[in-house]
Design a protein that fits this description.
With about 950 residues, the protein is α/β, with parallel strands linked by helices. The chain is about 45% helix and about 15% strand.
Length: about 950
């Protein structure tokens, strides 16, 4: 390690001065040298060595690639050691190497990249997947495989697809493991998931079975049962073996391994039966390489080369394509006139201590040009399209998802950066629009650990004997919702029954105990109760806890089990129908307009009919009365005057239609007023309450106080804290003028329970907030999710309603009787009408009798009959009665009819006389002639 630090320091200090080494090749050299650094005896190294050698052979045999220039390869064994990798890289720099393939280890890549930067030699790794090997820090480093950034994104989508929220990572504690887990943490956070525990394993030979045993024992005590294993093969298989020994490969667990396992399965299959048995049901990722004819031909060739003893994995294909990538880039470099030349590094020449022979290393003058050609490459290799994006990553990243079953494995789907999880090969989806919606994500069925086909829940309660502490408020009012059983820590009430019923529906046992919260003298602050969950005092809270914004920011709530929202409660009074209720259907303006229109229509009809209709003629007084009578009688369709003009009939027809509509509307409105109970309150809702200056009551401990102050802008001085329903009633009855309140603002469940026993108050206006009651748990608690499902089940099967009816359905206010009473019509509702009719009758009779008495006095004064006192009284009575009974001819029609009757009577008597005396008739005729 000291040597590594020393070399890095030597390479990163000093000033640069270029000098030609004299070793300058011609424009098209006979050979170019490249190097390769990897671990020979590793799973990846064994296949990479064969793949690189075959690729170099194929390039040299293909004259169309380098056009006669031979590609020479030198290999170094790094043994996954950063220092040895550094030494190997330095040795390459002494031999005019223009590019280096490798290393396979991310740890070694970090060290060698400093050398590549200093000497400007492109470093192309086919297996270093550490996402922190960035192009900004290491401009001469290029990854020809996929970054773990995409692999961790694929794992995060799998976790989200199965509905898990917490995972545990077991990883190798070096740059490769730590940086990969960091990328996974970011990918999970983007999907509201998280790593609940990170278990680092000492790298390489530093990890013993005992160390892994200690690590997995701690993992077993955690809640999460989804474990991501990101390690090297030797450590990974040891983890599986210990996990099987501890019973962690059974039902309820979910294991996901990164592509280290797929590379072993592909290259060393079949594995020993004990090894396969220890990882049954594991999901594994493998870098996806599309099927092609070239790939199939290379696979056949591979089997012949290895005799079937070594399988072909994805990293062998990437190593093969890396050689071809360098060959194409070198060819472009030479075609563009590039010259392979090297210069001495003045930084190394200035370093004292020449025993290191640093002066032998040279800078590749065309390194930047060659690196540019590599990044611009665009061809089809065994691994698919070889092209790089702006981040220097391979385009179209994709992974196979396989499931270890029995003695083999089965592919259950794919992941691609283009369309997420799918059962279709990624290359078939690239022509479609990118789609990561939940509906489009799909995988085949999985056989999970324990030979189970049921998706693991992903978490359980830890087996460490800890019981959940559930905080419950000690209410002093509305105890139907939550109340403590005296002398115990047990609770009862609507909220408690719902929680117990939901817990009983869970497919696992939940150890919990209720912990009282509050002093028992007043309702506690529910916001403070919620904050104690985040502080770790409580593991959850059960009660009538409203789900509001400031609380959801710090805890997770279950599905609401009761709807809630703020309502305004105020006193009301019944609007008595009264003696003048019949005037209420129309406003005063409406009555005035009706009166004017009745008179106006009567005048219009009189004008149109006056000249041609005898019924609209006569003295002015009579015509005025006719106008009034005609217009008002149309209200009841009782007019008797006929209209003869066309215009008059048209006006009357339209007016009668209007009268019909007015009558119908009046009847309907009056019926509603007389039969439906009318309530009145000076407060119309929260807005009218807000703009007044009257005091407002609220329940102690409720979120209504903060809402009214912060959201509604009501001064705190106007708010009055009330503790019990009795306090509500007293404050409302007193009113603001007597030290009470104008209204009370509280949540719907409390208001409904209060009004069930207080019939003098009503809710005013609409519910002005929408929320509900739920059970609170720490953020990302899986118990909140499972209880939400249980609450929905209670709602669907009717148990939630039965619990509600048990505790909250009782009322002392008889609404049915009130409705029946309001349907009955009382005498007081029509007293005004009877009074008007009675007064009009009385006045008419009074006027009539006054007129009769005046006539009677005139008749008595003109009488000259002298009788005794008794006879005089009798005659006066007879005269009065005769005046009352006498028929008076008021109208010209009546007088005309009487005159005609008299004439008819005279003519008849005269005819009789002529019949008796014909001579007299003749004399009469003669006289007429004369």
């Amino acid at each position: 390690m000291i040597w590594t630090i020393l070399v890095v320091h030597l390479l990163s200090v000093g000033a640069f001065s270029a000098g030609l080494s004299g070793n300058v090749s011609s424009s098209r050299p006979a050979a170019v040298s490249i190097g390769a650094i990897f671990t020979y005896n590793s799973t990846i190294g064994r296949v990479a060595k064969i793949a690189i050698e075959e690729a170099v052979k194929d390039v040299n045999n293909n004259s169309s690639v380098l056009h006669g220039t031979r590609l020479d390869i030198r290999m170094q064994n790094s043994n996954c050691n950063g220092f040895l990798g550094m030494v190997g890289a330095l040795q390459f720099m002494e031999t005019d190497t223009i590019a280096v393939i490798g290393p396979q280890s991310s740890v070694v890549a970090h060290s060698i990249s400093y050398v590549a930067n200093e000497l400007q030699v492109p470093l192309l790794s086919f297996a270093a997947t550490d996402p922190l090997l960035s192009s900004l820090q290491f401009p001469y480093f290029l990854r020809t495989t996929q970054s773990d950034l995409y692999q961790m994104a694929a794992i995060a989508e799998i976790v989200e697809y199965y509905g898990w929220r917490d995972v545990i990572t077991v990883f190798i504690d070096d740059d490769y493991g730590r940086n990969g887990v960091s990328a996974l943490d970011d990918a999970l956070a983007a999907r509201r998931c998280k790593i609940s525990y990170k278990a680092g394993v000492p790298p390489a030979a530093g990890a013993s079975r005992g160390d892994i045993m200690d690590i997995l024992v701690k993992v077993a005590l955690m809640e999460s049962r989804v474990i991501i294993l990101h390690a090297y093969p030797d450590v990974g298989f040891m983890v599986f073996s210990v996990a099987r020994y501890l019973g962690m490969m059974g039902d309820g667990y979910a294991w996901i391994a990164t592509d280290w396992l797929s590379s072993v399965l592909d290259s060393s299959f079949p594995l020993p039966s004990d090894t396969m048995d220890s990882m049954q049901g594991v999901l594994v990722l493998r870098q996806h390489t599309p099927n092609s004819e070239r790939k199939r031909e290379f696979s056949e060739r591979w089997r012949k080369l290895t005799g079937g003893s070594l399988g072909l994995n994805a990293y062998a294909l990437y190593a093969y394509d890396t050689v071809w990538l360098i060959a194409h880039a070198v060819n472009s470099f030479l075609d563009q006139g590039g010259i392979i030349s090297f210069s001495n590094d003045s930084k190394l020449l200035s370093v004292e201590g020449h025993n290191l022979h640093l002066e032998a290393m040279s800078i590749f003058d065309g390194g930047n040009h060659l690196m540019s050609n590599i990044l611009q490459s665009d061809f089809i290799g065994l691994t698919g399209p070889i092209k790089f994006n702006s981040d220097r990553s391979r385009i179209l990243p994709a992974y196979d998802i396989i499931n270890v079953i029995g003695t083999g494995f089965r592919q259950i789907g794919y992941w691609s950066n283009h369309s997420g999880l799918s059962t279709l090969a990624p290359e078939t989806l690239y022509s479609r629009d990118s789609n990561h919606s939940n509906a489009s994500q799909q995988l085949h069925s999985v056989i999970w650990p324990g030979d189970s086909t049921a998706k693991p829940r992903g978490w359980i309660f830890p087996n460490n004997g800890r019981t959940l502490k559930i905080g419950v408020p000690r209410r002093v009012s509305y105890r139907e919702f939550v109340s403590q059983v005296p002398g115990t820590n047990n609770f009862k009430g609507f909220c408690i029954d719902v929680f117990v019923a939901a817990v009983n529906l869970l497919p696992y046992a939940v150890p919990y105990q209720f912990v009282p919260f509050g002093d028992g003298r007043k309702n506690p602050s529910y916001t403070e109760l919620v904050y104690l969950i985040t502080a770790g005092v409580f593991d959850g809270a059960v009660g009538d806890i409203a789900i509001v914004t400031n609380r959801t920011m710090i805890v997770d709530f279950t599905q609401p089990y009761a709807s809630s929202g703020l309502l305004v409660v105020a006193p009301f009074k019944k609007l008595n129908t009264g003696a003048w209720a019949f005037l209420r259907p129309f406003s005063a303006n409406m009555w005035a307009v009706l009166a004017v229109f009745f008179l106006f229509v009567g005048i219009v009809v009189w004008i149109l009919e006056h000249r041609i209709n005898d019924e609209f003629r006569g003295p002015p007084k009579k015509q005025f009365i006719t106008i009034l009578w005609f217009s008002l009688s149309t209200l009841f369709f009782a007019h008797r005057e006929n209209t003869v003009s066309t215009l008059g009939r048209l006006v009357l027809l339209l007016w009668l239609f209007a009268v019909l509509i007015i009558n119908s509307s009046y009847t309907a409105s009056l019926t509603s007023i007389l039969t439906v109970q009318q309530l009145y309150s000076p407060i119309k809702g929260i807005e009218s309450l807000k703009h007044s200056d009257e005091p407002i009551g609220y329940q102690v401990g409720s979120f209504a106080e903060n809402y009214l102050i912060e959201e509604m802008g009501i001064p705190k001085s106007r708010l009055v804290a009330l503790g019990t329903p009795a306090d509500y009633a007293r404050a409302l009855q007193r009113g603001p003028k007597k030290g009470g309140v104008a209204a009370v603002v509280d949540e719907r469940p409390y208001v409904e329970l209060f009004l069930s026993s207080q019939c003098k108050f009503r809710t005013i206006g609409q519910e002005f907030t929408r929320s509900g009651w739920g059970f609170a748990f720490p953020r990302d608690s899986p118990l909140a999710v499972d209880l939400s499902t249980a609450i929905l089940t209670l709602s669907e099967n009717g148990d939630l309603q039965r619990i509600h009816d048990k505790w909250l359905t009782h009322s002392s206010c008889s609404l049915d009787n009130a409705e029946i009473e309001s349907d009955r019509l009382h005498l007081r509702s029509f007293a005004g009408l009877f009074l008007i009719c009675g007064i009009s009758c009385f006045i008419a009779l009074l006027i009539y009798f006054i007129k009769i008495m005046l006539k009677f006095r005139k008749a008595a004064d003109s009488s000259s009959i002298a009788q005794d006192q008794g006879t005089s009284r009798s005659s006066r009575l007879q005269t009065l009665l005769s005046l009352i009974d006498e028929k008076k001819d008021k109208s010209p029609r009546d007088r005309k009819r009487r005159k005609m009757d008299r004439c008819s009577s005279s003519d008849d008597s005269h005819g009789i006389e002529l019949e008796r005396n014909p001579k007299r008739s003749q004399i009469s005729v003669d006289n007429n002639v004369l």
